[in-house]
Amino acid sequence: MTPFRSIIEMIDTLHTEDECREYLETLLWGDAPVCPHCGTVDKEHWKLTSFGRFKGQYKCRHCRARFNVRYGTMFEGTHIPLKKWFYAIYLFISHKKGISSAQLARDINVTQKTAWFMLGRIRENLRDDDAKFDDDTQVDETYVGGKTKRNRGGQGRSLKQKTPVFGLISKGKVYAKVVPNAKKKTLQDIIDDLVKIGARIISDRWKGYNDVQKNYLHETVAHHLGQYVNERDFHTNTIEGFWSILKRGIVGIYHLVTAKHLPKYCKEFVYRYNTRGLTDGERFIDCLRTPSHRLRYYEICMKPDFVEEIMARQMDREYQRECENMGLRYI
Hints:
By secondary structure, the chain is an alpha/beta fold. It contains 11 helices and 8 strands. α3 (about 80-95) packs across α9.
């Protein structure tokens, strides 16, 4: 399928909801519908026509379950037209520093709450690359958050208002993860898990990297002495450049990101950085083709322990319905 060259071309091509649905069916299914319940691919799945405005409904010839192209994707369980979803996704992935929910709400004529939830679903379903590094790898940590009372400039390593993020970059691929602290064990465990033994690690002289030389070649840059390229021409400027994009996006576009949601925002900027070689149209197709799932609103808003409790209750209700359908007694 030929990628769109611009958002104007996408809007001119996909005029109606039916055209958007058919485009998504072709992108995800190809020539034959795929049942998301049993995985059966069959051109002879029954196409239902008695659902009024809810077109594109199918019934599986094997498991008899009903489905449509939205089922099991980020578009499931929403009455927002696919045209607005496509517009939101295209804007989101093409803006280098992201787009705020307030701006998106004005662009597609929805409430800010709806736009915020849409962006949350899109971030949740971005593709994750397998982060494995076997060449020269730059590592660094940064702190995201507000200014402390003692430091009005906003710099420093205070964990009271800031959240540490650890990053690695090699061969143009970056990995970023929110960490509880920048202690030696925390950083070393991530490096050992992602970087091949014997590779070269390039870092500053933070004490958290003191044990890196045990398993890796270790090059350091003395930032505290004003050094940015050491005597052997090694530097950490590439990972520093990624941090600048991340922080400019958070400060300039989103303005405020809490520690709870920061991992999703890091994932957003990592995805854009790692797919910067693609055109906006290619990235749009990649985003739609990535296997996704339905993110529910309470999963974003509630605390993790409440989410686990609610999901357990839902699984229990589903199990009870299955028992009733099979004629078994639920205990």
